[in-house]
Amino acid sequence: SHASPRSVLPGVVAGIDVDGSLVSVRVALAGGVSVTARVTASAWADLGLGVGDTLWASVKATQVRAIRVAARE
Question: DSSP letters along 4-20, please?
């Protein structure tokens, strides 16, 4: 199969939240920006990553969802 183009950004695992079989992983990117990825617990375990580890975040534009957060003061 042919992979679609993606943006690949360097980041650091900033937080992990386990919710049953899903894991929300917060990744800190440059400029104070962060993204959150939801993956299965087994996929997360296979990666062997933890808070503070560096990684490359691969972002597929069709899979991005913006969520409004409280305004910063």
Answer: PP-EEEEEEEEEEEEET
> pLDDT tens, position by position, for the chain (73 residues)?
455 656 888 999 999 999 999 999 999 998 888 999 999 999 999 999 999 999 999 887 777 777 777 766 5
Q: Which two tokens stand for residue 45?
A: 């375990």
Token digits for 29? 């990117």
Alpha-carbon gap, residue 59 to 43, rounded angstroms:
17
d(CA 64, CA 73): 26
Bridge partners of 37, per DSSP, are: 25
The whole model's pTM is what? Answer: 0.77
